[in-house]
Amino acid sequence: MRKYTVLLLLLAGTLLSFGQNSKTYQFTLEEAISFALDSNYTALNSRRDIAKAIKQKWETTATGLPQLNANLNYQNNLKQPVTLIPGEFTGGEPGTFVPVVFGVPQIVSATATLEQLIFDGSYLVGLQAAKTFLDYTENADQKVQLEIRKGVINAYGSVLLAEELVAIFQKNKENLENNLFETRQIFENGLAEEEDVEQLEITLLDVQTQLNNAKRTEDIARQMFKVALGIDTSEEVLLSQGLDDLAQENINLNFMESNLNVEDNIDYKIAFNLTEQRNLELKLEKSRALPRLNAFINYATQANSNDFTFLDSDQRWFQSSILGVSMNIPILSSGMRGARTQQAKISLEQSKTQLEETVQNIQLQFDTAKSNYQFTVENYQNSKKNLSLAERIEQKNQVKFTEGIASSFELRQAQTQLYTAQQQYFQSMLDVINAKTELETVLNTPQLKN
C-alpha cells in the first residue's frame, strides 16, 4: 500500500509540473496579428536581415575611413645567401671572385601603416548603394509583415470555420440519431418501410464521416495557426472572437471606394528599389574610369643580430618612416569597362520595364481584389438567405415524412441540401474575411511599421 501511495504522489507531482510548464494563449484577431509580427519565424529572420543590412552599410562606410595595420616579422637565416664579388676588390687576381656573406642571420622588424582613401568614385556610389539596399531590406520586411498578417487572418478564420463545422455536424448527427431511433420504432411497429430506416442510416453515416473529417481539420487548422504565430504546436490556444462577428466586422462596402495609390503598394516599392540599384550599378561602372587616390604614412623599426638578443635592453633598433600618396589612373581596358557600362545600361532599362509591368499588375490585383470582395459579400448574403430557406424546406419535409406524406428519399434530399447550405454559409464568412484582407494587402492598409 505504501508503494502505491509513493507512485501516486510521484505521478501527481509530474502532472503538476507539466501543468505549470504548459502555457495557454488567448487571442482576439488583432492580438494574434501583433503577436505573430513579433514571434513568427519568418518575421524574426526578416528583422535579422535588416540588422545585417545595417552592418553592411557600416562596412561600406568604413572602407573610406582611416585603416591602420601593423606587421611584425622575424627571420632566421639558417643558411645565409652568398654573394660573389670580383677578387680585385680584396686584392685578388682579376677575373676571380670572392664569396661574401652580407648581413646577419637574424632580423626582427615591425611596421605600422595608416592608410586613408582620398578619392574613389566607386566608394561614393557604394555608399548610395548601401543605403538603397537597406531601404530594400526594410521594404522586404514590410512585405513579410503583410504576408504574416494575411496568413494569421486566414489561419484564425480557418480555426473558427472548423469549430463551426464540428458544432453543426455534431448537432446534425444528434438530430439524425433521434430521427433514426423514432423511424426504427415506427418500422418495428409496421408503420414504416425499411427503406426509410436505411435512407436515414445512409445520411447518418455521411454526417458522421463529415464530423470526423471536420475534427481532424480543426486539429490541423489549430496547428497551422500556432505555426503562423510562432509558438510551439503543443501549446493550448484559445480564440476570443467568433466567425460571424469577424465576418460582420469585415463587411464594409464603403471600403470599396478606396483609391489605389500605387506608390504605397509594397511590390511597387520593391520594384522601385530594384530600379535604384540598377541605376547605381550604372554609376559604379562609369566611376571605374575615374582615378583612385590614396594617402599613407608608416613607421617601422628593425633590429639585426647574430643571435636572438632582441629582448636585451642594449639591442639597437633602427627606425624608418614613409609618407606617400598614390594615384591609380585607368587608361586602357581594351573595351572591358565600356562593355560593363553597356550591360549596366541594359539592366537599368530592364528594371524600368519591370517597374512599369509591376504598376500594371498592381492595378490588376486591385481591380481583382475589389471584384472578389464584392462577390464574397454578395455570396455571404445569398448564403445566409439560402440557409434560411434550406432550414424551412428541411423542417417541412421532416413534418411531411413524419405524417407519411413525403418519402425518405425526399427527406434525405432536403437534409443534404441543408447540410450543403450550412457549409456554404460558414465558408462564405471566411471568404469575406480573406477577400477583405487581400484588398487591404494591395492597398497596404494598414501600413505596418518596421
CATH topology type of the largest domain: Outer membrane efflux proteins (OEP)
Succession of helices and strands: HEHHEEEEHHEHHEEHH
The number of helical runs is 9
Mean pLDDT: 89
CATH architecture of the largest domain, by name, is: Up-down Bundle
Strand arrangement within the widest β-sheet reads 2-5-7-8
**Uncertain segments of ≥5 residues (pLDDT<50)?**
14-20
Please describe the biggest sheet, giving its number of strands, its sense, and whether it closes into a barrel: 4 strands, antiparallel
The CATH class of the largest domain turns out to be Mainly Alpha
Q: Please give the radius of gyration in angstroms.
A: 40 Å
The geometry reads as elongated
Briefly note the structural class of the backbone: alpha+beta
Strand percentage lies at: 5-15%
End-to-end gap: 63 Å
Report the CATH superfamily of the largest domain: Outer membrane efflux proteins (OEP)
Instruction: Report the strand count.
Output: 8
Tell me the helix content: 55-70%
Number of domains: 2
Describe the protein in words.
This protein is of the alpha+beta class and 450 residues long. The chain folds into two domains: 26-64 and 120-290 and 334-443, Up-down Bundle (Outer membrane efflux proteins (OEP)); 71-119 and 296-329. The protein has helices at residues 2-21, 29-39, 41-62, 121-188, 194-229, 243-250, 266-287, 336-403, 408-443, and strands at residues 24-27, 67-76, 83-86, 97-100, 106-119, 236-239, 292-305, 318-328. The strands form three sheets. It has a four-stranded antiparallel β-sheet with strand order 2-5-7-8, with no helix packed on it. The chain has a two-stranded parallel sheet with strand order 1-6. The model is unreliable at 14-20 (pLDDT under 50).
